[in-house]
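<instruction>
Derive structure tokens from the sequence
<data>
Labelled lines for chain and fold:
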Amino acid sequence: MDRLFAQGVINDNDLRRLLMEIGDVQARIRYVHLRTHLAQKVLLTPEQVTHYDQLRGYQPGAESSHSHTHH
């Protein structure tokens, strides 16, 4: 998409198609990421889940060690 913009040859149809493809890839990556969080919790003890949630910043007053948006 960037190349087509730089070359000045992108049109509305290409733009729409490429954005939809990019959105689909981003959604699939996000799904795998969030599915992994769910799978982790199944393997943890209740105490580990509590600690995991605290580290992720899911509990009030907890500080997250992650810079990305909470889920």
User: Anything to note?
Assistant: DSSP finds three helices and no strands in the chain. The helical segments are 2-7, 12-43, 46-56.
